[in-house]
User: What shape does this take?
Amino acid sequence: MQASPRPLGPPHSLLGTPLTDTPGTPSYPLTDSFPTLPGPPSTRAPISTEPGTLGLLRTLRPGPPVDAAPWRLGPGSRKCAVPCRHLPRWSRRRLLPSASAAIGMWSRRSCRYRPDASGLEELRARRREQESALRKARRQQQLVSKRLLREDSLVNGDGQAGVEIAVEPLSDQEILQLLRDVQRGTEERKKLLSRLRQGLQHKETQQKFVRLEGSMRVLIGLFTSSLANVQMEAARCLHELSHSCDPAVAEACLPATSYLLTYLSGHSVEFTELCLYTLGNLAVESDAVRKQLLPQGIIPALASCIQSPHVAVLEGLGYVLSQLLQAREAPTKIIPLVLDSVLPQHMLQLVSSNLELGMGVAVEFAWCLHYIVCSHVNNTLLISQGIVSTLVLLLLELASVMSKAATEGLELLICPVLRCLSNLLAEDETEGCKVQIQDERLLVALFLFMQYFLQQHPFLVQECLWLLNNLTADEPIFCSAVLTMDLLPALLQLLSCSRMVTLLALTVLCNIAEKGPAYCYQLHQKAVLPSLLSTLALSDAQVVGQSLELLHLLFLHLPEAADDFLSQAGLQALEQHQDNPQLQERVRALSETYLQPAAASLISCASASAAVLPSS
Amino acid sequence: MLLPPELSVSLRVERPLLPVRPRTPPRAPFCFSPSRLRFHRQHEFFEDGDIHRHLYLQDILTNVTEVTERSKVSEFCCHIVGCCQVFDTLEGYEHHYNTLHRNMCSFCKRSFPSVHLLDTHILEWHDSLFQIMAEKQNMYQCLVEGCAEKFKSSKDRKDHLVKVHLYPSDFRFDKPKKAKSSTKHNKPPSKLDVSMPMDVNVETYEQSQADSMEICPSESVENPTQPMSGPISSLQEKKLYKSRSVFPLCKLLLQGSGLHMCWSST
Assistant: This one.
């Protein structure tokens, strides 16, 4: 008789009282020690006065709501004649680390290999290739990616980069034999299915498999069996098929979707995670797949599943949802269903969830929110659910976290959040309420992001500037804050970056200058003119045009700026563009309205002062 | 970037606001007016960020670290009475428990993948009141979560599932209640035997439950006669009896029918 550990049942789901460990058993993370979600964010939390670091960005949130409801026990009594109403499946919202293997894709996001120097170069080359392929796909509006959940035991032992598959493909006969043996149960089923799964990593095997008559049916039969390990291996086979780049292979998995959806309401973390990623892969495959998934109730199934406390499940769910939301028909067919369900509220909670544990989860749902917001279906609903304050507070938190620990991958979360806020700010007033943000700390966060990501991920700088533009367009608060917080030098530094960044930075400066003389005065004091002179030397007409607009605003509100501009050889800088049809009108207007009169008055001043000087 | 040092320190709760001049329209030929920009989903502005996101999805993004090993524990047994399945990982045990024991019907010992399906099963199979009410009104609830339709009969519901929800017509978790058959499927398959029932668990008496929603030996055994393996706390014990996962002894039955079956995961 084997010694067995304390009978704990499946981890996480039973009693909340801690049980004593017996030697040799792993300790299960217990409910009481789990990190809790922060409570609902307030619209403006008080600012702490912690000096030095970015303690000022840390918001003081109310603590998590005390929830007295007990964990739902395992199998409840089923003897009653009338079935009991369901208890909510998970009474408390806490992100749980899953059972050790199903730790979520975020935690496994690094390469599984440790390549040597040549391997690293190969990896980089592969990445460059992949990147250009993706760009091309996006320009054709066919940007599609799938995810693969694969057991790590398949990695080649000596860590050779690029060598993913350790087994040979299978022939038709071998596949048939494997399936027969599995049905008969002559050998150990799990091993047989493992062999099949390894073979299915090869495209040829996948194609052969789906072409064999009855093979899919047998696989689905195994997938729905009640022998747990058989079911798991069959699920892994299905997952390999779903990841295929051959659309025929993925579409052959269609008969399994009703079962995949049914199993989403199960409790096995690893199995549910696998089902989710399989569904996510299938969902991007084609319109035909989604046309089946939607009537089969994928949205309600996800809406139930999102109440799971397990990180791995939530991350998988976010992945499925993000895949659905990227579909061409999403704005008309999918987003309305999603908005109608409880998904948005949960998404908002999860996006600002405990970042240490739920980073991957937050990333997925942030992208989901971005796809919804930028489709402009019903952003008023999201606004009424508090999306703006949630996201602002999230950015503040990220900015304070960023300075401490170099959290890699933060840009994956920050990017979609910035986009959401920018688009929400630009919501049409006629459609709903105009969004106003008045928290200046957001400004600090944005500049910190730009500083942090300028070298490594410059794309984020332009996203930050977009938000900065939307913040400064109407709100004098932010314009004033840029000046009084001495952020202008940083902004001016951005004028020498990429075209889009320069253009956006100039637009922000125009937003500030437009507010009036007091702003122009500050701009002038803090040396905006020299930077403008540099941009005038550029060849891009749009950039120069925006510089001219800025000059106009400066001269309009602050006449002495024209004098200084002249004295810095501004006129010559302008004259280079006087033949450019896009620019000439404005160049002329600037010269005639401001610069020539200024020059004339300078001359007359000079001659006047010369007149009073004693002649030598 | 040239950020001022101690930036955060300079932030006060209330900052004096510079006076604002009322907005006037731009004078020609100048056209600038501050406006909030809005980009739609396919805009090229999003290209770089989208590419980055997809590189992450394809797992090509970052550098290399160790991969955590799946933790193994010493072998242990399932604690449900009569189930002698052995495991060496937590996940394996968890999955087994959820598949076989978690949502099990106390009346007929069948397991279901979810509470929802279990409830529906109990209602339709074991509730005499249900049968009476079903004669008067539509009681067969659609199985798809979120769909509130109800039907007069199991067949009507199946038609609905197939037509509206595009479910397969042989959906495994929607078998109508039938008298127990004792068909045996012992013929050796010469090719892939697709007529064989989906479930591939145990050969003989499982087949007799081909019509059932899920698998368990149909013969009910009143009392567990085998001592439970391992120490069990009183709490756990109570839970076991209270929960409907008392599992008739497959081992005993198997020995009775002359077959050697011990479900092992190794």
Summary: The two ends of chain A are 120 Å apart (CA to CA). The CA atoms of residues 87 and 119 of chain A lie 53 Å apart.
